[in-house]
Amino acid sequence: MNSMDVNNAMDDRKKRRRLIAGVLFTVYFAVLFYFLFFSEKMGRTYSERTYQYNLVPLKEIMRFIRYRKVLGTYAVVLNLVGNIIAFMPFGTFLPIYYERCRKLQYTVFYSFELSLVVEILQLVFKVGSLDVDDLILNTIGGLLGFLIYDVVKKIIRKMTERKKHN
User: Which range marks the domain in which residue 137 is found?
Assistant: First the structure.
């Protein structure tokens, strides 16, 4: 096998990985938007109730922590950890699919931006609630997702280098 064949094989693997990442990214978005806008279990139905929102950073996070015994572990974990976990795939897939986002600041910015769009849409359609704490938690999720991407990328790079030397 000459170097051109090796390069073509590597390009094919990259294209395949990118395609798989694109499909998974699309599925992730479909699931995310279902839970954020349509899931009845998540209280995402339109209601005539007075719409509630939170514009005070850390207010709801502290409320959930303070009243965790009253609210229950499930509600606390769902709100705090769930918001973080929900955006981790975004932070992982974004740099795989978009080369520009292979820098932390871009992924964090786009995680914040997507979360802001979601919160504004929830306000406009009166589904869920606009909560600045969700912006914080979702952005942290995107950041953690990027860190996972970065660690996995470094592991793959080291494994590839070892194969080349053997």
Answer: 3-165
Query: Which amino acid, 98?
Result: Y
Number of domains in the chain: 1
pLDDT in tens, 58-101: 999 999 999 999 999 999 999 999 999 999 999 999 998 888 89
Question: Reduced to 3 states, what is the DSSP secondary structure of residue 15?
Answer: helix
Q: 97: exposed, middle or buried (C-beta count within 10 Å: 0-12, 13-18, 19+)? A: middle
The alpha-helical segments, DSSP class H, found in the chain are 3-37, 59-66, 68-71, 73-97, 104-125, 132-165
Say what the pTM is.
0.86
> pLDDT tens digits for 31-51?
999 988 888 777 666 655 567
Sequence-ordered list of residues with C-beta below 8 angstroms from that of 137, at least 6 positions apart, any chain:
61, 80, 83, 84, 87
Rounded to whole angstroms, the Cα distance separating 146 from 142 reads 6
CB contact at 8 A, 55 and 134: no
112 CB-contact burial (10 Å; exposed 0-12 / middle 13-18 / buried 19+): middle
Identify the sign of the CA torsion 54, 56, 61, 66. Answer: negative
Beta bridge partners of residue 130, listed in sequence order = 53
